[in-house]
């Protein structure tokens, strides 16, 4: 009798593993848009200026995180597809020469993660109690949302600010859970946000061309201070009074 129960459990595991490919999917809202379209007006090479990543901030559920290299790579690749800028300088890269027109970019990712841990634990208890027989029928979920802000500061100090939001849910069964699926969910949500940002930025193409604004005047100016003339025969020393203590 015990051997029969073990065989049933093993068979249930094998069936669940075989069905796992059909028991997981990802919903993203809004869905990923196609690659950002190039600006409607072709920008001459001489009119393009460098873009410098000045800041990159990532927070998960309100807690600051070290920005992964994958995030910056996604941002740079997406901006490159717009063909708005001559070069892209990553965070900490070599800056263009002084006096050159550049665009400074500051990006922030505010991410929200909800793995539904309490619900998953309860469903896991049910699965364990049923010896995995119900595992293909019991679904689990993992929610991921992102709010992305992009600030672009022109060489004359003017700033354009863009914002985008996206959210998604990974649906899976016990046997279909994998870190790869979670990474796919995060990647799709991030790409959806970046697509929205690029669409907004492309509409402001004229703001970023080199001829849109001259370089500002140097902030440091020389000031000449003339010494005060003293009358002939008078001393230029300042008199000092002394007070004798009683």
N-to-C span = 114 Å
Number of helical regions: 5
Q: Mean of residue pLDDT?
A: 76
Question: Count of DSSP E strands?
Answer: 7
The helix-and-strand class reads alpha/beta
Unreliable residue runs: 8-22, 118-123, 129-135, 238-246
Compressed to H and E, one letter per element, the order equals: HEEEHEEHEEHH
Q: How many strands, which pairing sense, and closed or not: the largest β-sheet?
A: 7 strands, mixed
Give the overall shape, derived from the CA principal axes: elongated
Q: What amount of the residues lies in strands?
A: 15-25%
Query: How much helical structure, as a percent, in the residues?
Result: 25-40%
- Radius of gyration in whole Å, from Cα? 31 Å
What is the gist of this entry?
The protein has 246 residues and is α/β, with parallel strands linked by helices. The chain is 29% helix and 25% strand.
Task: Describe, in plain words, how this protein is organized in 3D.
With 246 residues, this protein is of the alpha/beta class. It is built from 5 helices and 7 strands. The radius of gyration is 31 Å and the shape is elongated.
Secondary-structure blueprint:
Layout: H1 2-19, E1 24-29, E2 51-60, E3 63-65, H2 69-80, E4 88-89, E5 103-114, H3 117-129, E6 140-153, E7 159-172, H4 179-202, H5 205-208
Parallel strand pairs: 2-4, 2-5
Antiparallel strand pairs: 1-7, 2-3, 5-6, 6-7
Helix pairs in contact: 2-4
